Amino acid sequence: MNILCGYNVNIDSVYRVSGAEISELLETFEEAEILNKIEYPPGKIISEADFVAGLAYCMKNGYGAEWLVFEHSAFKFLKNRYFEKSLVRMGGNAGIMANALSQLGASRVIPNVAVPSKTQLSLFSKKAIYFPDTLMQMKENTGEEPEENKNAGEESEENKGTVSSSQEPIHFVFDFSEGETFSLYGTEIKVPRENRFIATCDHLNLRLFANPAFEQYAFQHVHEIDGILISGFHLLLENYPDGSTYETILDNAISQLRSWKARNNKLRIHLEFGHFANKNIVNSVFLKCADLSDSLGMNEDELAMLYNLHGVPGEGLLNMEAEAVTRAACRLASRYRHKELLIHTREFVLTVSKLDFTSKLDLKSSSNPHSESHTDFQPSVEIEDSMDDSMEDSESSMFQKAAGEKLEALEFGVRCAGAYAATGRLEGREFVEEAALKLQESTFGREQIEAFLKTFNGKTLRQGAYALWEGYLICMLPTLLSKTPVTTVGLGDTLTAGIFLRGLELNVQA
Predict the structure, then answer these.
(1) Domain count, the chain
(2) Is residue 331 part of a domain?
(3) What angle do CA 320, 438, 412 make, to 5 degrees?
(4) Hey, how many other C-beta atoms are within 10 angstroms of the C-beta on 316?
(5) Cβ 423 vs Cβ 433: under 8 Å
(6) Average pLDDT of the segment spanning 447-462
């Protein structure tokens, strides 16, 4: 399988900060300025004091936050002070998914790399990743830095003030632990819960920037591409310093994807959500991508953000209750004509897919996507009777075959995510299968499967369950959990990559 991955690839610089260290850091800044910024958080980083206040504010309250870095002097302070002491790893949904696909057996994976610096390229898998640019190939093969990137991240006359767009996209992630204590100018503070503060310098990814080499490769080779994994829309800002807005950037990205799909009607596009800070943007992305993406993925938090579109209260979604998640996903898919939604939680995964063949059992009710039955998902009697009547029909066989393929893809993705959580590595399919054998199925996830079967009159199949509703196939599977996970970062992206890859393979085999 040949797969494109865009848009957001960056460097994560992860540093665990102690109470003693923040106490010492605070003493180097003026008390009145820091306390004022803690009381009235600026929400962005223009100075070193902004960063220190943001970190202290989050540690004091146990909050998580991400603030953008807008000045080169602040970026330079962070890089010089923390980068070499940090755990440096691949960041960005697209980067993580590209590496997963490469390790899991894709033939060729082409990532969009906004700034192909030596550090950024070194974080990619060496198996199937392909950089479509002669300078980048030279850098990969000889260890030399591409000429136009030698100054990335270094101060020059033109970038001494505002951060340069050629600068390496680095997300400085500051983890802190519950129970750490620090002195806030004489007042002892105890950190109430573990969390993180992120100082992000990533101005190209905020604009969904596509490297020209990536764009050119996609245009020239789109007939050879099987799928595209797209992410990074959650980074969009409502307004940009130059006066532009997210609408223009979003429309341009969608137009580009449409042009690729127009040249290859077999191309499958999956759009992966992230944590959106703005509800207007999340709604706009969801609605505008309805007829573009073949599938769209999100977790329960992101599903809850779409409340005004599906109307299911957030409590049930955030508690990962199968009934609430199923109702919300089905309403979104049917009301806005999405082909497939993938909801991945810690305890289970669920897909709602539009069937490619017409079913007699739901032909009538599917004629109006805004009918009352779509609003209030009540499938019990209709589906149970219809399924009983058609058990021996070829139609029922097609339903079961479609469900089997969906569940097989879900199972592979679940095993990949579980293996990665337990080991921090993905070293091929044999490695994944062996690691997955040592994991335990989520007990809560299995309980929710039972609730799903009862509420929606579903049927068991493979390790999961499925149900039918008005032209949509609903499949659900528990996750695999590790008692002692090595990492919890990137699990959703790893799961999504596995599901997408296996789904492409099954589609080709069919």
Answers:
(1) 1
(2) no
(3) 60
(4) 17
(5) no
(6) 96
Residue-level pLDDT at 77: 96
Element of type H or E holding 10:
strand 10-16
Coil, strand or helix: which one is 41?
coil
- Comparing CA positions, the residue from 9, 33, 50, 66 lying closest to residue 196 is 66
Cα separations in angstroms, 420 against 10, 87, 110: 20, 17, 22
- Which helix or strand (DSSP H or E) is residue 477 part of? strand 472-478
Domain that holds residue 496: 347-509
> What is the C-alpha to C-alpha distance for residues 189 and 29, in angstroms, rounded to an integer?
18
Provide the strand spans (E) within 177-308. 181-184, 187-190, 195-201, 227-231, 268-272, 295-298
Residue 385 lies in a domain: yes
E-strand ranges in 299-442 read: 340-344, 348-354, 440-441
Contacting residues for 16 by C-beta, under 8 A, at least 6 apart: 174, 175, 176, 177
Task: Give one DSSP letter per residue of 177-245, joined into a string.
Answer: -TT-EEEETTEEEE--S-EEEEEEE-TTGGGT---HHHHHHHHHHGGG--EEEEE-GGG--SB-TTS-B
CA–CA distance, 119 with 139 (Å, rounded to integer): 11
For the chain, the farthest-separated pair of C-alpha atoms sits apart, in whole angstroms, at 78
Residue 497 near residue 416, CB atoms below 8 Å:
yes
User: How far apart are the C-alpha atoms of 203 and 386, rounded to whole Å?
Assistant: 53
Q: By C-alpha distance, which of 29, 83, 72 is closest to 52?
A: 29
Q: How far apart are CA 411 and CA 502, in angstroms?
A: 9
Which residue has tokens 């089905």? 330
Q: Which residues pair with 343 in a beta bridge?
A: 298, 350
pLDDT at 371 over 80: no
Per-position b or e across 491-510, b if 16+ CB within 10 A of its CB: bbbbbbbbbbbbbbbebeee
The verdict on residue 69 lying in a domain is no
Percent of the chain residues topping a pLDDT of 70:
85
Q: Quickly count helices (H) and strands (E) in the chain.
A: 20, 20
Cis, bond preceding 7 (omega within 30 deg of 0) = yes
Give yes or no for residue 306 having a pLDDT over 70: yes
181 near 23, Cβ under 8 Å?
Answer: no
Q: Does residue 445 sit within a domain?
A: yes
Say which amino acid occupies 164. Answer: S
3-state SS of 248-286? HHHHHHHHHHHHHHHHCCCCEEEEECCCCCCHHHHHHHH
**If you average pLDDT over residues 61-66, what whole number do you get?**
92
Phi, psi of 482 (to 5 degrees): -105, 135
Strand 348-354 versus strand 108-111 pairing type: unpaired
Give the pLDDT of residue 241. 84
- Calpha distance 92→106 (Å, rounded): 19
Output the six-digit token pair for 4: 């494109």
Decide: helix, strand or coil at residue 157: coil
Torsion sign (Cα): 143, 147, 153, 157:
positive
